[in-house]
Design goal:
Length: 121
C-alpha cells in the first residue's frame, strides 16, 4: 500500500509539472484556461441545475485535457524531427482537431443550457 501512495505522489508531481510547463510555454493552453475561468464563473452564477453545472465544468476541463494532449503530440513530433513531413502535419492537425471537437462540445452544451434558461424550461 505504501508503494501505491509513493507512486501516486510521483504521478501528481509529474502531472503538475506538465500543467505548469504548458501554462508557461503554451499560449493556447493559457487562452483555454482563461476561457474556462469565465465559463466556470458563469456556470456558477447562472440559475443552472447541478447537472448542467457539472456538464459545463467537466467539458471545460475536457478541453484543457485535449489541449495538453495536443501539446504532447506537437512536442513529440518536433522532438523526433524538425523536418516537415505530411504525416507529422497530420498528427499535429489531428491533435488540434481533438481540441476543436472538445471545444465545440462545450459550446453546444452552453447553447442548450442557455436556451433552457432563457425559455424557462
Amino acid at each position: 500500500m505504501l508503494y501505491f501512495f509513493r507512486r501516486l505522489r510521483l504521478r501528481v508531481i509529474w502531472s503538475t509539472h506538465g500543467i505548469v510547463n504548458a501554462w508557461r510555454e503554451e499560449h493556447s493552453f493559457r487562452s483555454w484556461v482563461w476561457a474556462n475561468l469565465v465559463s466556470a464563473a458563469l456556470a456558477l452564477m447562472l440559475p443552472l441545475s447541478p447537472g448542467e453545472r457539472a456538464l459545463i465544468l467537466a467539458l471545460g476541463l475536457l478541453v484543457l485535457a485535449f489541449e495538453l494532449v495536443n501539446t504532447a503530440i506537437e512536442r513529440t513530433v518536433d522532438y523526433i524531427s524538425e523536418e516537415e513531413h505530411p504525416m507529422a502535419k497530420q498528427a499535429k492537425d489531428a491533435g488540434s482537431a481533438g481540441v476543436m471537437v472538445a471545444a465545440i462540445a462545450a459550446g453546444v452544451a452552453w447553447v442548450v443550457v442557455l436556451l433552457r434558461v432563457m425559455l424557462g424550461g
